[in-house]
Design brief:
Oligomer: single chain
Helix content: over 70%
Number of strands: 0
């Protein structure tokens, strides 16, 4: 989770706790207090649902971008390995040519 997400969730939770404590200690009728608690609980639930949806979207976006980055890096590594393999094969072929020439001289 990102630092901003943790901060937002902390603020939401702190606000919900503060509102609940404020309502419980306020001098009001029980019916009014219960209604306020219910309204605050619904508002907090909605805010948390929105935050969860935003977090889900952020995670999905990050995963998608990281996947594309990884695919690109993998293609680069494979391409580089292919060029290096060609270089190794070319070097080995030239060495083999030299060895064959030396072997031919030794057989005479």
């Amino acid at each position: 989770m990102s630092k901003n997400t943790n901060t937002a969730l902390g603020l939401l939770l702190g606000g919900a706790i503060g509102a609940t404590l404020g309502i419980l200690f306020a001098p009001d009728k029980g019916v009014n207090t219960r209604k306020k608690l219910k309204d605050d609980a619904i508002a907090t639930k909605d805010k948390l649902a929105d935050s969860a949806l935003q977090l889900k979207d952020q995670v999905a976006s990050t995963i998608t971008s990281q996947k594309h980055s990884l695919d690109s890096q993998l293609e680069t590594v494979i391409s580089d390995a292919s060029y290096k393999a060609d270089d190794v094969i070319t070097t080995l072929e030239s060495k083999l040519k030299v060895l064959k020439a030396k072997n031919k001289k030794l057989q005479k």
